[in-house]
């Protein structure tokens, strides 16, 4: 079992004919993901990596029975591509694109709620259920099948912590990158809830960072709703206050909330141990494991 | 990206918000000419992209040529929040009976825009928000429909703003939201919004922060970045498409992904070192971007060792390696030792392509320990 995706997930890649789209579609296929179609306006009729390309997402879905989309469309056109995906009756839309205007995402998010489609991202690495399917840009070789759920705001930090988990013998049920932008679709609470309901997930690692109050809200959710043990990690302990660190969302305000310290305290108060290093995170998960 | 007050006021005025008559000046004699044109008293205001100018002496009201000269003398060249004052705004001094606050921003938690109004303007609005949150009238906005007039009124009435001016204030808030939306702003604020004894409503200050990712839709504003400082490492990094923050330690850090770079800084601190900078090359960086990143870090005199930490997903190890080699080709001997940790997509190909000039370490924590050791004069 897993959350969001499994071996049956059928994927359409929006932007398949672009260099990123093609490179990562090939990596997804190599991993065993059912990439069944591409959608690129004006490129219908082509075949890329053995996958048929359609002009419209809707046609791709009708012809191939796809139920998920992965979007590799440049930022200026990503909002429109996401609306198109949301109009095509998919269960899951994964937005990899970095640099999508925030106001576009506010409108896209609202639409996703209206049509009841799970939106992941933008500016996210995607989702992987090791051994079954990966949708996005995550390096498949780092992951191993297992029972630890991973949810993270940061792509590369996910890979880092998963590498530590895997080398400690702790495989993953599903790893979800929710993205680092101020407005993302699925958030920590959505993913934590899904892991809580997944019988295969025996522990969860939640990877957060400075900025916003999502981790604080997630801490309250964990205390209220979860029996599955959760281990935390927060990036940005040494970040100076008031300075923006890369991710549009990663700025610690001077008011106390949003700082690493505040997030760590909120998690610890909710009974979530927080590792100081990626190695420590793996050790904390191991100490929670049934074996 | 933040606009200077005088640029933001141009945008506000063009949209129909009343602002005091004003004009920017870049030296004392120009300031004097403008002040005489407007007629005393005038306000002379430092143009810097940070709050708290008033408290630091960056805003003065003057009534004579002599007072203006003295004020200009002290304000030009002043440093406020790390920015040197190069431009002032000379503005008709408005006498206020009341000072209000209006703002529009994105509420990340609610994933919706929010408009705000407060009867306590002209002060540190963050303090008001923290200590008396009920003093701020808030209304969330459905981004598909925009702000309805009744919602603007809701916010204004909730803030307890006097009924005699509430309608006019609500209509300014509607215009402010329209600007926020059309200009792809992250924040738009008026603080203070002055109400005169005659009941006129005038924006005495203007804040407009634009979404950097949407500047392609705002070509006429894109060049007005008030935060830009020519010739600095920050500006060079920004021009190369890099996210860069200079810090005060000695370990130069280059990595991909904000979370991983922040974690690298945290680990440097954890193992007893001190980072010189945050530098994120972003997703899918090619060789040129990697080379530009190394150049920026080598040029920082505080840096004594460079730690390059890449975990490839969309970024490819082979591209990164060729960027490293490209950057190193310009040197007979490297300015500083370089520790490289490459993992993820095409990492092996990348490691194989690296020259012996750099030291490679397999694990993150191992690489950080090694860099910290080198920064403290450890064995090379």
Walk me through this protein's architecture.
The complex is a heterodimer of chains A (291) and B (380). Chain A contains 9 helices and 13 strands. By secondary structure, chain A is an alpha/beta fold. Chain A has 2 domains: 1-123, NAD(P)-binding Rossmann-like Domain (Rossmann fold), CATH 3.40.50; 139-290, 3-Layer(aba) Sandwich (Rossmann fold), CATH 3.40.50. Chain A is globular and about 55 Å long. In chain A, 60% of the residues are buried. Chain B has 3 domains: 21-92, ATP-grasp fold, A domain (Dna Ligase, domain 1, 2-Layer Sandwich); 96-223, 2-Layer Sandwich (D-amino Acid Aminotransferase, Chain A, domain 1), CATH 3.30.470; 233-378, Rossmann fold, CATH 3.40.50. In chain B, strands 7, 8, 9, 10, 11 and 12 form a 6-stranded antiparallel β-sheet that branches. In chain B, strands 1-6-2-3 form a 4-stranded antiparallel β-sheet, with helices on one face. Chain B has a 4-stranded parallel β-sheet with strand order 14-16-17-18, with helices on both faces. In chain B, helix 5 (149-158) crosses helix 6. The model of chain B has no long low-confidence stretch (mean pLDDT 93). At the A-B interface, helix 1, helix 4 and helix 5 of A face helix 8 of B.
């Amino acid at each position: 079992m897993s959350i969001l995706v499994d071996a049956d997930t059928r994927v359409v890649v929006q932007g398949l004919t672009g260099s990123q789209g093609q490179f990562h579609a090939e990596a997804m296929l190599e991993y065993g993901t059912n990439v069944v179609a591409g959608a690129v306006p004006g490129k219908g009729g082509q075949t890329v990596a053995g996958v048929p390309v359609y002009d419209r997402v809707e046609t791709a879905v009708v012809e191939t029975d796809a139920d998920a989309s992965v979007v590799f469309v440049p930022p200026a056109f990503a909002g429109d591509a996401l609306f198109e995906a949301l109009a095509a009756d998919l269960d899951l839309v994964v937005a990899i694109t970095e640099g999508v205007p925030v106001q576009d995402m506010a409108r896209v998010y609202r639409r996703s709620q209206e049509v009841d489609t799970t939106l992941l991202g933008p500016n996210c690495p995607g989702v992987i259920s090791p051994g079954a399917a990966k949708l996005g840009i995550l390096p498949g070789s780092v992951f191993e099948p297992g029972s630890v759920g991973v949810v993270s705001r940061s792509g590369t930090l996910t890979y880092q912590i998963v590498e530590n988990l895997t080398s400690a013998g702790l495989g993953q049920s599903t790893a979800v990158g929710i993205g680092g932008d101020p407005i993302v679709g699925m958030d920590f609470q959505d993913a934590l809830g899904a892991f809580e309901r997944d019988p295969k997930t025996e522990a969860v690692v939640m990877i957060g960072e400075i900025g916003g109050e999502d981790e604080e809200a997630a801490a309250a959710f964990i205390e209220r709703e979860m029996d599955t043990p959760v281990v935390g990690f927060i990036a940005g302990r040494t970040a100076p206050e008031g300075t923006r660190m890369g991710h549009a969302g990663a700025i610690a305000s001077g008011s106390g909330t949003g700082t690493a310290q505040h997030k760590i305290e909120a998690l610890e108060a909710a009974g979530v141990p927080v590792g100081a290093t990626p190695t420590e995170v793996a050790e904390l998960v191991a100490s929670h494991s049934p074996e | 990206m933040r606009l200077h007050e005088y640029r933001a006021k141009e945008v506000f005025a063009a949209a129909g918000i009343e602002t005091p008559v004003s004009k920017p000046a870049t030296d004392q004699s120009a300031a004097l000419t403008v002040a005489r044109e407007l007629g005393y008293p005038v306000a002379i205001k430092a143009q810097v992209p940070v709050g708290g100018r008033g408290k630091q002496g960056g805003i003065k009201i003057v009534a004579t040529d002599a007072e203006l000269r003295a004020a200009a003398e002290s304000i030009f060249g002043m440093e406020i929040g790390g920015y040197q004052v190069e431009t002032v705004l000379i503005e008709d001094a408005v006498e206020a009976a009341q000072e209000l606050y209006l703002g529009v921003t994105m509420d990340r938690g609610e994933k919706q825009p929010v408009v705000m109004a407060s009867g306590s303007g002209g002060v540190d609005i963050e303090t008001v928000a923290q200590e008396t949150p009920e003093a701020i009238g808030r209304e969330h906005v459905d981004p598909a429909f925009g702000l309805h007039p009744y919602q603007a009124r809701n916010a204004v009435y909730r803030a307890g703003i006097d009924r005699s001016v509430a309608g006019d204030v609500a209509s300014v808030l509607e215009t402010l939201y329209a600007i926020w939306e059309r200009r792809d702003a992250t924040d738009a604020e008026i603080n203070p919004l002055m109400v005169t004894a005659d009941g006129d409503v005038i924006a005495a200050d203007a804040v407009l922060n634009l979404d950097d990712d949407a500047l392609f839709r705002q070509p006429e504003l894109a060049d007005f970045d008030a935060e830009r400082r020519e010739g600095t490492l920050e500006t060079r990094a920004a021009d190369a498409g890099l996210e860069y923050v200079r810090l005060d330690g000695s370990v130069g850090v280059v990595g991909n992904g904000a979370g991983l770079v922040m974690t690298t800084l945290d680990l440097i601190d954890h193992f007893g070192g001190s980072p010189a900078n945050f530098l994120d090359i972003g997703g899918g960086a090619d060789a040129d971007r990697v080379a530009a990143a190394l150049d920026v870090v080598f040029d920082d005199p505080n840096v004594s060792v460079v730690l390059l930490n890449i975990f490839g997903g969309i970024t490819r190890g082979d591209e990164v390696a060729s960027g490293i080699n490209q950057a190193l080709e310009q040197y007979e001997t490297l300015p500083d030792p370089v520790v490289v940790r490459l993992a993820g997509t095409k990492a092996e190909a990348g490691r194989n392509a690296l020259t012996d000039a750099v030291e490679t370490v397999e694990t993150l924590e191992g690489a950080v320990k090694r860099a910290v050791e080198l920064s403290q004069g450890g064995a090379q």
